[in-house]
Structures are given as C-alpha cells and as structure tokens.
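User: Second chain of the day. Same drill as before.
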Amino acid sequence: MENVLVIVNLSLLQLIGMVFPIQTLIKLFISINIIFVFEIIEICESHQLKDREQFWMDMTKCYNREIGFNNSHNSNSSFGYKHTEDAKNRMSKLKKGFKQTKEVIEKRIEKMKGKKHTEETIEKIRTGKIGEKNPMYGKKEDEEHKKKRMINLLNTKKWNSGLTKKDDPRIEKLGYWKGKTTKNAKKCKLIDLLTNEIWEEDSINKLSNISPLSNSSLRRLIKNKASEIISKKYKIIINE
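Assistant: Same format as last time:
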C-alpha cells in the first residue's frame, strides 16, 4: 500500500474547520488505496498564511506535479493555471440562466463611474482586436443567424419606449424628443463644397433627416474622422 505525505500549513482555526481544498482529490485516491497523511509543519497567525504558504511551496516544490498537487506557483494568484475542458463545461452549465441581482449590477456601475482607460490601454485594446486577433475574423454570419438576431432585436423592448422627458430626464439628452429640439441641441449647417447647397437644422439628428449624410456620418465629420470622399465634398458648421 503506497503512502502519500501531504504537507499543509493550517492555522488552528482552519484545522477546526476541517475544510480542505484537496478534499475531492483525497476521496479519489482513497478509492484506489492511497493513504493521505496530514502533518502540521508550522503554526502561524492567519495574516501570515499567504507568505508562509509561498515559503513552503518554494521549499517543497509542490507545484511540480511529479512531487505535489498545487495548481499554481503563486500563493496569491492562480496565474498560469488552466482549467480542463471538463471543468470549463461544468462552469458554463452552472452559469447558464444565472442573472445578477439589481443590487450587484448597481454596485458594479457605481464602482466603474468616473473611471477612464489610459491612452496606452485603449491602444492595447484596439490592437488586440485587429485582423486575425478579432474573434469574428474570417467569419460570415449565415442567414438563419441573421433572422434570429433581427427577431430578438425587434422583440426586445427599448429602454425609452413610451417614455417622455417628464418620466425620465435622460430623454432630454437624446438628439431629439418627438421632433422637439432638446436643451443641449446645437444648430448645425452642412455645406456641399461642390454644389454650394446648404442644409441647416436645430440638431444633428434633424439635419440627418434632410441632408444626404446619416447621423453617424455627420458625427464623424464633426470629429474629423469621416472618409476622404465625404471630407472633400462636405463641410459642417456647429453654432455654439
């Protein structure tokens, strides 16, 4: 009968709890007649556990699977550890249908308010999605999936459906509200540089309804991000 010595750094409080992270593993090996022997090699305060765990991990090299069972080289992180496909499937099944509570969502929103990515981070995100790195690279959406997506889109109730500016102050921040110009709307003028034709309205949204350019094209033109063809043909003037 083979003996396997498992050295663990448990505080007395943890020992009383008798909850071991390798409990499942122990059951598996006991079923094939391998005996685990627990030995307390050090008693320390709870705030010292991580540092002392790292010390003994480095001392015993228990992260080497030929010696021990640790998944990670670091006591403070699971960096480098990869879940098995079976574990991924089980986690996926557990998460399906799970919805976060409103309280959790609100806490997450509050935590992120005011935070902005640095220019370096924005660039990393951008370059991480270019070309073959993009998850949709080389993929084409089939007609069946398009139909399903459109049905879901049509059946999803919009957050501002049926609301007026009296019901929700966010309505006023939209480009226009039932054809009425909002407080933050600015008069704008679009000029065709080739024909000298002019379109003028009280807001960008209203201008998009009467001019050849769409709402998004007008906004790109304002930010100097429009295509070369549009930039050479049109000029937009915003009255502050």
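The first helix runs from residue 12 to 17.

User: Great, on to the next one.
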